[in-house]
Amino acid sequence: MDFAERLKELRNKKNLSQQQLADLVFVDRSSVARWESGARMPDAIMVARLSKCLDVDVADLLNESNEEKELTVILVDNERIILTGSLPVLAKALPGASISGFTKPSEALEFARNNPVDLAFLDIEMGKKSGLTVCTELLEINPKTNVVFLTAYEGYSLDAWSTGASGFIMKPLTVDAIQKQLPFLRNKIRSLE
């Protein structure tokens, strides 16, 4: 049995829909659908999240896969409800992208160390570690990462520009706001051209 079949089998055993599993691991439903169809393979962090949600060892989920590079996008917001509501908006604005959400900046940074992130959407106020600090650390990991800040507070806009970010969007996140930011990204992304 390959990864796609095993994932679907385990999800069904837990009586979870693709959407429910997607919500548990902070990805869009289409990501789960691509994993289950064999069109894509999740990265190591996602495999670990899946194994935890499905109560199985990581080894039970893994198979070798040679996947082509796709647009990698992350969304970091410590508010779970904002994160869950924004992921479908990103998926609609960036069809075909691999989109992962994080409530903890430390998990997002660990993901970025193991995966080249093309585009990061960061909340600015996230408890102990601000989005401004996360932006700086992301750019240290990969200077080609494009960062767009999300916030409900206009007052942060000047601070945001001093970090090397590509843009600034007022919450709530909309498809139109995302698409208006794409032409202004500092580092061009071929799959968006």
Encode the helix/strand succession as letters: HHHHEHEHEHEHEH
Give the overall shape, derived from the CA principal axes: globular
List low-pLDDT spans: 63-68
Largest sheet entry? 5 strands, parallel
Record the strand order, biggest sheet. Answer: 2-1-3-4-5
Estimated helix fraction: 40-55%
Brief overview:
The protein has helices spanning 3-13, 18-25, 29-37, 44-54, 80-93, 105-114, 131-141, 157-161, 175-181, and strands spanning 72-76, 98-102, 119-123, 146-151, 167-170. The chain has 193 residues and is an alpha/beta fold. Helix 2 (18-25) crosses helix 3 (29-37), helix 5 (80-93) crosses helix 9 and helix 6 packs parallel to helix 7 (131-141).
Description:
- The chain has 193 residues and is an alpha/beta fold.
- It has helices at 3-13, 18-25, 29-37, 44-54, 80-93, 105-114, 131-141, 157-161, 175-181; strands at residues 72-76, 98-102, 119-123, 146-151, 167-170.
- The longest helix has 14 residues, at 80-93.
- Residues 63-68 have low confidence and may be disordered.
Blueprint of the fold:
Layout: H1 3-13, H2 18-25, H3 29-37, H4 44-54, E1 72-76, H5 80-93, E2 98-102, H6 105-114, E3 119-123, H7 131-141, E4 146-151, H8 157-161, E5 167-170, H9 175-181
Parallel strand pairs: 1-2, 1-3, 3-4, 4-5
Helix pairs in contact: 2-3, 5-9, 6-7
Can you tag this structure with a few keywords?
single chain, 193 residues, alpha/beta, 9 helices
